[in-house]
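Changelog excerpt

This revision adds worked examples to the README so contributors can see how folded entries look when concatenated. The first example is reproduced verbatim below.
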Amino acid sequence: MKKYQRMHLIFIRQYIKQIMEYKVDFVVGVLGVFLTQGLNLLFLNVLFQHIPSLEGWTFQEIAFIYGFSLIPKGLDHLFFDNLWALGQRLVRKGEFDKYLTRVLSILSFTS
C-alpha cells in the first residue's frame, strides 16, 4: 500500500510540474477557481443582506455547509477525475497498451 501511496505522490508532483509549465495558463486557472468561489460566497452574502435568515439558517451556517460540501467534490476530482479518459482517450486512440506493460495497476495511472 505504501508503494502505491508513494507512486501517487510522484504522479501528483509530475502533474503539478506539467500544469505549471505554462505559467500564465496556471495562474489564470487558479485565479478562476478563487474567483468562482468568491462569487459564490458574494452571492450568498448579497442574499442574506436582503433576507436575514432562511428558515432559521444564518449566513455563517450556509457558508459552512457550502464549504463542507466542497470536500467530497474535491476528493472526487482528486481521485476519480481522469477515469473518463480511460475509455475516451486511451482506448479509442490506442494509448492504453503502454499502461498494460507497466508494473503498477492500470487504475493507479488514472487517478
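The second example, added in the same revision:
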Amino acid sequence: MDGGSENSSPISESPMEIGSLSIQSADGASGPSS
C-alpha cells in the first residue's frame, strides 16, 4: 500500500502540476500579450 500510494502520488501530481502550470502560464501570457 505504502509503495503504491507513494508511486501514484508523484505520478498523478506530476502531470496535474505540469498541466496546471502550462495552462496558467499560457493564460497569464495570453492576457497581457493580447
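Reviewer comment on example two: The radius of gyration is 15 Å. The helical segments are 2-33.
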